[in-house]
Amino acid sequence: MATPDSLALFTGLGLSENKARETLKNEALSTQLREAATQLLLNMFGVIPRIPLIPRTSSRSVASVWW
């Protein structure tokens, strides 16, 4: 199910809004992607942040902000 939180998560990871919506249609894939993002954040920071990860104020992806 497409939730605003999941859409914000996927766009925060660098997917376009259209690609994020397409990903949300595949429940198994979107579940795996959410779990992978959560594990990555737990490993990097030791916490689960509130969604959205990073506000989409620019075209930069999360990866470009972190590295």
UniProtKB/TrEMBL annotation:
Domain of life: Eukaryota
InterPro entries, per database record: Gln-tRNA-synth_Ib_RNA-bd_N_1 (IPR042558)
Name of the protein described by the UniProt record: Glutaminyl-tRNA synthetase 1
Source organism (scientific name): Mus musculus
